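lol ok so funny story. i was supposed to be doing the assay writeup but got distracted and ended up predicting the structure for this chain instead. priorities right. anyway since i did it might as well share w the group, maybe its usefull for someone
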Amino acid sequence: MAFDGITVACLRRELAEALTDGKIAKITQPENDELLLTIKNNKNNYRLLLSANASLPLAYLTDTNKPAPLTAPNFCMLLRKRIGNGRIVSVTQPGLERILVFRIEHRNELGDLCTWKLIVELMGKHSNIIFCNEEEMIIDSIKHVSANMSSVREVLPGRTYFIPKTQEKADPLTITEQEFYDKVCTRPMPLAKAVYTALTGFSPLMGEELCHRASLDGGFSAESLDEVSRLHFYQTFARMMTELNQSPACRIYYDGAGPVEFSPLELTQYETSRSVEFDTVSSMLETYFAERSLVTRIRQKSTDLRKIVSTNLERAGKKLILQEKQMKDTEKKDKYRIYGELLNTYGYSLTGGEKSMTAVNYYTNEEVTIPLDPTLTAGENAKKYFDRYNKLKRTAEALEVQIAETKADVEHLESISTSLDISLHEEDLLEIREELTQFGYLKAKGPQGKKRIARNSAPLHYRSCDGFDIYVGKNNFQNELVSFKLGSGNDWWFHAKGMPGSHVLVKCGGAEMSDQAFEEAGRLAAFYSKGRQAPKVEIDYTQKKNLRKPGGGKPGFVVYYTNYSLMAEPDITGIEEV
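and the output, tada:
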């Protein structure tokens, strides 16, 4: 999700309500491109994070403090001198630009009242934090941009600040109906793209959202809209702009393990996705980027494990294909056995030198023609066919064992792959790494036989609507714990049918569970499985006493012969996590 002008507009209103007339008590620069301002207002302390990071520009209120460097950078020292203890007069946004302007009053050494502007530009790689006087002359910036770096605008002390107009976009807050038609509905491009290329502050996501609200295909050509569709599209746009001035409906939308989108406006295109609502834009932004950062960090740390699993899974898949092909070749072994038997039965009629013999197969009463080696007798030809039969029989018996082992390896590796997808913490990755080491996919480090890690990772813990504890294993070691060590025989066990996934245990102690509790456990089993992207997943459930661990089975592998089934959506919205 882009930090677009619509998000900035909602954030601006929140910052204006919280910070206007506030006193800047502290200014730090934790990173080269980041400021943290502490502001006292209405007997409250607010921390305002401003980041001009090229890959992750941010601005929001936070409760989290960050350590400051021992020596403050020059830009931080300048701000402390000019606006330290200053009063925030206003927080504004030009149009729907991704820009926040903090107007600050401060008395200088002579006691004269001075007005300054701290301008935060949240524009991707062009993001910056610029300090100007009231005449908008640049005093300094957190990033200096020379003419060699940009031909559009220099950001250097002494230059005049202006917003670069690199694209002729219209302001959605002031655009008229006719201008909307002229700017958006005449473009020879998909409708969603026409929206975000013609209007300031609209990201591709919000362009698609506007089309979805108007029940129009975002890929449909904008210039092909008829008069009725254009009017309906404009009216939908006008309602969205009205909604922008109301209380924001801050939500983070989830798809699978991590968040995929956030928005201060309701995203109707994600109405079927799991979402979490927040009271403020700042809390939404802080949560979203913290979770995205966690998911990204875990994915980066698991890259080597994913590569090992995918490599071995591909190798096992090729091996299984080859073994099944070889097994198919052994299917003709019975034909050779019958040839040998028929030669022993009817071979007395051969005189020698024949290249074939026709006889009736007494198993099917059909005639068969048996190829012969003319240099061999009937008995020798029969022995030759029996030898072929015995060889293929031994091969089939060996392949049957090998195919079962290879299928078990594939199933095991697929379960590890699913475990990697639902891993949330580094401790989860340590357990998966240990499992890969135990089964020879990774080389063991350290003295052999020594316990390599202390398992600090625990299964996920939820609580049902009836108040029963529900445990969800995140990997095979935890699945083993959930299935065989946590609960008693009358507790209920859930698992996605025919696919890798977490083992889910509801500890009920023999008490009766409601239908809703069964449905919640099924949803958890569906969500933490390989089928989490499917609309619905079939779930097997049975009591724990019906589970069996086969001898020599891999971690998390169970068998059961008595079970019930239900269909569950992979959506865990509303299920309480402990």
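The chain has 13 helices and 21 strands. Residues 449-454 have pLDDT under 50 and may be disordered.
back to the writeup now i swear
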